[in-house]
Amino acid sequence: MTDDAALDDADTPECLACGACCFSTLSRYVPVSGDDYARLGDDAVRLVAWNENRAYMRIEDAHCAALRIDEATRRFVCTIYDSRPQVCRDLARGSPACNGERATKGERPLIALRGKPA
User: Fold this and answer.
1) pLDDT, tens digit, for every residue of 6-47?
2) Rounded Cα gap, residues 116 and 61, in angstroms
3) Torsion angle, CA of 43/45/49/53, rounded to 10 degrees?
């Protein structure tokens, strides 16, 4: 299957309805390069955590700190979408990496929505 075919997969939910790739309990989950840090601008101080000389997106409540769970629409919104790290940009919807995220962590977004108003 080509990457284009993967992107057209009707079984793959829209990113805003899924959010699995944004969930982790690992503090070193999303690496932030120097270019990423610069692209984040003023948001970098709030969203980036350092481990010695390496930078990572901060994890809060078991998901990326830049993720906003919209209770009204029950969507998962990246608050820094236009300036997100390269690793996030490279993760294509329906790709093998996306499918792996959904297979291993697909329940985490549902757990985050549990108890939130519909």
Assistant:
1) 445 667 789 999 999 999 999 999 999 999 999 999 999 999
2) 15
3) 120
